Automatic annotation (TrEMBL):
GO cellular component: membrane
Keywords from the UniProt entry: Amino-acid transport, Membrane, Transmembrane, Transmembrane helix, Transport
InterPro entries per record: AA_transpt_TM
Pfam families recorded: Aa_trans
Stated name of the protein: Amino acid transporter transmembrane domain-containing protein
């Protein structure tokens, strides 16, 4: 792909045909101040599998003097290096403040209680910020930007890990997308029940409607960077249902008798506690940080760190507010969808459910974008993304993907247990185990003995947690499978 497609300019002086390599100047994330990189069209052993990597260099620096910087991107149909850090910050914030937050009072606070639930949310935020920062600092290694998680893993470990990482990430994002479709279906059903609680419109039907709307939105948004104004709407929708849930929960709590905050004594309490611990990790992490970072403007590492700090400070406040208030108001009896617990004017709850539904449609697009990027790059056409042939391509390919996703969501509406399993098998390894181990591999010559020990402790500790969480999720799946049936109307 040419540099012009990404908004970069080629420097003809640098493309000297007399040499097989180009020399780059100092670059954030490089192991040294200069590096040798194969010329565009020359493949080395570590290049991505069979792909020709175009070499790009920026214009001369203002004020005279030339400072070459290698910006190498693998072929992609989506935009790279176009978004300011605050837009990426809103992408991340949209993910953590999606309609999933309406379930954290029940899925995190009820099994863990006030002390461990509150401390766990804060500790998980700190650990997640640290782990994501490690991945962000590995964005520019090997002389090029690693725009996909699998590219980074492939560069560090080799071909087999490239494939395994892609499989883990795909399963993780597929399940997250299915969860979003279920959430959108729940919002539609809650909206229907406000006016007609006759059982005619069942959850599977609502999930089907939600899948159709998500597909229509996907047809019109060609890539992640094109969300732009939709991120503003997403933030507005998030604030609507979070503020409504917060205010009505506060009012209900002030007018209600003492609540029971004791942790339920279930026969599978240990597994529920482990599952809630895994949900703490799920609340903050995407499993697709390199794909999001690929859209950010240079300097990519510095700007991504700004976006991460925004996500884990200001961006996390709405999550804490609605989670703690929901648990305070309803205690151990809070529902898995907080808007089903709150009592208040019908019109207010109507607006909140509509906002929840619309925000979920936008948020799903973020977590589906790696799959869209893969399909668009491999099979899509270049040129105007809104040309008839490109729109028809998206209708066919994205429509097929979301049809499968919607069908799985309708068949298994009790998907939370399966999401806990995929979180244990993919989110934990991708976000924590691989992040620390890749950092060790890439930066091993620069780390002191104490830092190496710290990263190894993280690798071993999170690996053990992933195994334990997977066992707990399997136990909960077996237990819930006895209570629920396929296409259940929950």
């Amino acid at each position: 792909m040419g540099g012009e497609r990404h908004g970069w300019k080629k420097n003809p002086a640098a493309l000297d045909t007399s040499s097989s390599y180009l020399v780059c100047g100092s670059m954030a994330g490089c192991e040294a101040t200069t590096a040798l990189l194969p010329r565009s069209g020359v493949q080395g052993k570590d290049e991505s599998w069979g792909m020709v990597i175009p070499t790009e260099v920026r214009e001369d620096e203002p004020g005279g003097g030339e400072k070459l910087r290698i910006l190498v991107s693998e072929d992609t149909a989506h935009q790279i290096s176009t978004d300011p850090w605050y837009q990426v910050g809103f992408v991340l914030t949209t993910g953590i403040n999606s309609s999933y937050v309406l379930g954290y009072s029940q899925s995190i606070m009820v099994p863990l209680g006030w002390i461990f639930g509150s401390a766990g949310l804060l500790l998980a935020a700190a650990i997640s910020l640290y782990a994501n920062s490690l991945v962000a600092r590995l964005h520019e290694v090997g002389g090029r930007r690693q725009i996909r998680y699998r590219d980074l893993a492939g560069h560090v470990y080799g071909r087999k890990m490239y494939g395994l990482t892609w499989a883990l990430q795909y399963v993780n994002l597929f399940m997250i997308n299915a969860g979003y479709i279920i959430l959108a279906g729940q919002a539609l059903k809650a909206l229907y029940v406000l006016y007609r609680d006759d059982g005619v419109l069942k959850l599977p039907y609502c999930i089907g409607i939600a899948g159709i709307v998500c597909a229509l939105f996907a047809f019109g948004i060609p890539h992640l960077s094109a969300l732009r104004i939709w991120l503003g709407f997403s933030t507005l929708f998030s604030l609507v249902y979070i503020v409504v849930a917060f205010v009505l929960s506060l009012r209900n709590g002030l007018n209600s008798p003492a609540r029971d905050y004791s942790i339920p004594r279930l026969h599978n309490r240990i597994f529920s506690t482990i599952g809630a611990t895994a949900n703490l990790v799920f609340a903050y992490n995407t499993g697709m940080l390199p794909e999001i970072q690929a859209t950010i403007k240079e300097p990519a590492i510095k700007n991504m760190e700004k976006a991460l700090w925004f996500q884990f400070t200001i961006g996390g406040l709405p999550l804490y507010a609605v989670t703690f208030m929901g648990y305070w108001a309803y205690g151990s009896s809070t529902s898995a969808y907080l808007l089903s617990s709150v009592r208040g004017p019908v019109w207010v709850k109507t607006i909140a459910n509509i906002a929840s539904f619309l925000q979920t449609v936008i948020a799903l697009h973020i977590f589906a974008s790696p799959m869209y990027e893969c399909l668009d790059t491999k099979f899509g056409r270049e040129g105007n993304p809104f040309s008839l042939q490109n729109v028809l391509f998206r209708i066919l390919v994205r429509g097929g993907y979301l049809t499968i996703n919607t069908l799985v969501s309708a068949v298994l509406p009790f998907l939370g247990d399966f999401m806990s399993l995929t979180g244990a098998l993919s989110t934990l390894p991708l976000t924590f185990v691989l992040a620390n181990h890749m950092y060790l591999k890439v930066k091993k010559k620069q780390l002191s003995a104490s830092k190496k020990t710290w990263h190894w402790l993280n690798v071993v500790g999170f690996s053990c947690l992933a195994v334990i969480a997977a066992i707990a999720a399997l136990r909960l799946i077996v237990s819930d499978s006895k209570r629920y049936h396929l296409f259940a109307d929950l």
